[in-house]
Sequence to fold (330 residues):
Amino acid sequence: MGKRRGPPPALGVPTKRGRPPPPGSIASIADKLGNYGLLLLLFETPSGFAILSFDGVQLYLPDAMENIWSNFGTEYMARHVVWLKEFRTFKDKSSAIRSDTGVDRKLAKLITRWRRPGQMLVVGKPEYRTIIETSMGIPCLFDETVMELMWGLQNVMHSLVPKEKSELTIEDRLPMSRGLKMFLDRKGFDVKPEMVNERIVLSACALYDCDHIEQKHCANLKRAGERLKEVSGIDTQDWSLQKVATALMVICWPEYETELGDPEEMFTVDELSKFEDDAREYDGKFIKSRVMRMHYELVCAHEARASHRVQLASLVTKAKEAYEEAHKTS
Fold:
């Protein structure tokens, strides 16, 4: 999915020999956005407004609508993509930004203090985009993907903005994340927005990360499968990622016991013989340390997926029972 964890690297820097980054890559998106891909974000809280810096590349990655939510399961996860700059409370927040009066001086100063030249401002309401662009001349971004981002910020509001002591009202809270809903549907969980709680979000994120680990290594393992066919004449087209990863371990680390499956059960005698006979032909085609790390990550994901799914199923069942009980008595 191209998902990025951790603070943004120095994106937009020319690649070796001055070649531009490939279209659609993280570096290419960041280069178009400017400011190393960082966007300024105006986040409305119950008592004021916060200015945050956000890894804007996340909004333009493939399937961003489905994946943004997964960055906001916990404070730790969120701090990899968003950082608080300043928070201010307002006695009369409703007068801070209005269609008839524009943006008041206090909020305008807050925005301009942190905005870099040419930097886009992400806002949580379409009317805010219109007002700020008209009165301040600052280009703003608001769309359905931004709404997913705002849902995530609300989910970890008190961690990101610790000075905000008030709670969001039911009316102010955004509906259930569309991306989270899509993920839960794919996993066979029918969850209504009223049923979602912090533990369900956290458990869903854990299960999502298990899937993400496999997706992260998918392209490399497919290329590895092509190498196996070139060198040993073995067709891996119908193999699972785990089977390809196990084959690489057999080739690169024959002295280690694989944990994704028993090679003698996964491969034919002829295939194991070819791996052994062709071992030297694979020199330089695979980086052994990467094979080991990839195998380890896939093992962890494989082992954790089952437990996370059981936990999520239990949490959804409890939430559904509580929801049904509440509607019986209401």
About this structure: DSSP finds 13 helices and seven strands in the chain. The longest helix spans residues 288-329.
